[in-house]
Structures are given as C-alpha cells and as structure tokens.
C-alpha cells in the first residue's frame, strides 16, 4: 500500500482493529442467518507526510449508496451547529442573494436549509440518493453524484461555481483525496471561500477515539498534512478553527493561492506549532496507540461481564458507526447488550453488523427499563443525557466507553 497523498510506501502500522463489516451495513432479520462480509481494519501512518490512512478495502461507491442510513438531521446539536455556521459565514463574508453556496456531501439538506432561509442560492452535491431525496423535498437543488474533477468540470461548463464551497465531514471519506481537492479548486470562484470540517487526528490520538476508525473513513487528518494536500492543488489556507464537534474537529478556510484579498490568520501558524510541539510530525507520536485500544476493550468487557453476573440489563443508545467499530473490536453481541435505541427510523428494526444487536425506538426504554445505557455516539452525550433524563426514575445509569469506561453517576454532572 502507498500513501494516497505522497505515494510513499507504507510500513508503519498505527492500529490494527482486525476484521470488521462495513460500519453502516445494518442487517434485516432475514439477513441474520446469511454470511457477512468482513474487511481488514488496519490503519497506517505515512512516515513522510504523516497522513494516517486505511486502504480502500470496501469500495466507496458500495458504502455510499441509496441505502445509506446516516441522516444528519436526527441530531439536534448538529443542526444547531449548522445554523451557527451559517450565521457566522454570512456575518464574516457578507454572502447574500447574489451569492452561490455549494455543499459537497450535503446529506439531507441539514445545512443548506439555513442558507436557503436567508434567500441565498444553494446547491447540494450528494451521492446517496435516499438522503438527497430528503433534501430535494425541502426545496434544495441537489446533484446526486460523487464529487471529483469529472463532476467539477461539468459544473464549470454549466456556470455552477461557488462563492462559498462547503465540505463538512467529507474529506476523510474520499479514497482519491487529490482528485477531490483538485475538483474543489475548479468550482471555487476566483475570490471564493472554501471551508472544510473534519475530525482532528490530534483528538483521536490523545482521547483514544479509535472507534472513529471505520471503512468509510479513508483518512485521519492533522492540520499539518491537510495544509500540504491543499497547497499541492493550488490552495492556501488562510484560517483555521478548533471546534468541539465529533470529539474535536478542525474547520479550515481556504482560498486560491493567487487570491490576495484575504489575510493569513495567526491561527494557522499557532496550530502548526501546537501540532509540532506535541510531536505530530514524528513517528513516535503514533506509537503505542494499539495499547490504548486494548485497555479500553478490556475495561468494557469486564464491565459487561460484571453486569451479566449481577443479573443487570445493559442497553445501548445510538446505532452509530463508531459504536459498531467499538462493539466488533470488543467482540460484543446481543447476549451482552440487549438492544440499541436510535432516533433514526431508517435504522430501527434492523440489526447491527456482526454483533446482531437489534435497533429499536425510544419507547423500548420505558418498557424494558435497563440498568445501564451505553452511549455509543459519545460526541453528543450531553444531548442524549438531557433527552433521556427520565431514566433516572428507575435508577438507570449512563456509561461511556471512550476514552475509557466511565459510569456517569448522575445526570446533572453531564449538564454542567
């Protein structure tokens, strides 16, 4: 395997999570008795550019298909983030009815709907047809295709270039990252602004977020490496924000390298120095991550065993991709976790891949009254704890397993 950016031959293993199904390959009841496809979940660090990456074991067009189950609008905190982002971009750059906003991987229109409310023209690009149709039903024009240089050239030919080009949590999802960034270069207007958000590799390493590794995340990104990638395609990064979403993310701001209308923020140098001071441009930084995952696995399995012996019921909340990575690495099945609650009806009445734990709606909690609820999407745990505060009536406790097992003794401790 060679680095998908600099083509260096890869030899340094960052972590090996063994074999696992694709994280969003939920099963119907009929499929439970059929064979499942497992793929290696082995991640490498490039010793030249420090891009952390997984091979394309499962083809991207079979992951992002018309049965895709992730709909952004089912998280109220994510919707709030999208609305705040919209207001921030309008205030900072003055976008208006004469502007064109384009979002790559626009999902169900969760973000573009807020620009539309300001009467700013919007265009979404989304390869998963089922989520795109939801956006279209909201009146958001959407191109149902994968983005890259081929589509970018068609857009340019049709005069569809962006004043604001957005990509939230998509950069890690593309196997051909250079073609993707080259496409962004083509569709951004000469004085346009590009923003991208993605989970920060520094947070993954330091907070043991190994469960965010799965087959649809091809790359794990530091600012140091992303800056190199964008510069290689004629961009210049002029600002960066550290934001709390997804356990700690970056929002980068890019412009054409010939655009002199935007000053370079001090944030750029500050974050580069921060990453360097932590050692992120040395291989040593990426050593011993496997041991952290093993410890988290051991603590969680011991907890489940103790509850089983004590006759306690453990349920889960959030049929998230990260939860599937974690459960499958830990070897957990439906004999240890009784069910998983999820607000997304597209996941309900299906079963998690490999573990075969059933996904149910929230009414199930009241009926079953579990003793513990494991929150798998720990990045929105405050939202979940708040919404499920009623479980205190039967002394149910919340559990998170990342970075390591923690039992939350009282709801109020999560809401401070």
Features:
single chain; 416 residues; alpha/beta; seven-stranded mixed β-sheet; six-stranded mixed β-sheet; 14 helices; 17 strands; disordered C terminus
Structure description:
With 416 residues, this protein is α/β, with parallel strands linked by helices. 32% of the residues lie in helices and 21% in strands. The protein has 14 helices and 17 strands. The strands form three sheets. It has a seven-stranded mixed sheet. Helix 5 runs parallel beside helix 6. The model is unreliable at 411-416 (pLDDT under 50).
- Beta strand count: 17
With strands numbered from the N-terminus, the spatial order across the biggest sheet is 6-5-4-7-8-11-10
Radius of gyration: 21 Å
Q: Give the overall pLDDT as a whole number.
A: 93
Tally of helical segments: 14
List the helices and strands and how they pair.
Elements lengths: L11 E9 L18 E7 L6 E3 L5 H4 L12 H18 L7 E4 L7 H6 L4 E4 L3 H9 L4 E2 L5 H9 L4 E7 L8 H11 E12 L1 H6 L12 E2 L2 H10 L2 E9 L5 E8 L9 H13 L10 H21 L4 E4 L3 H10 L9 E2 L17 E2 L2 H6 L3 E4 L5 H7 L9 E4 L5 E3 L3 H4 L1
Parallel strand pairs: 4-5, 4-7, 5-6, 7-8, 12-13, 12-15, 13-14, 15-16
Antiparallel strand pairs: 1-2, 2-3, 3-9, 8-11, 10-11, 16-17
Helix pairs in contact: 5-6
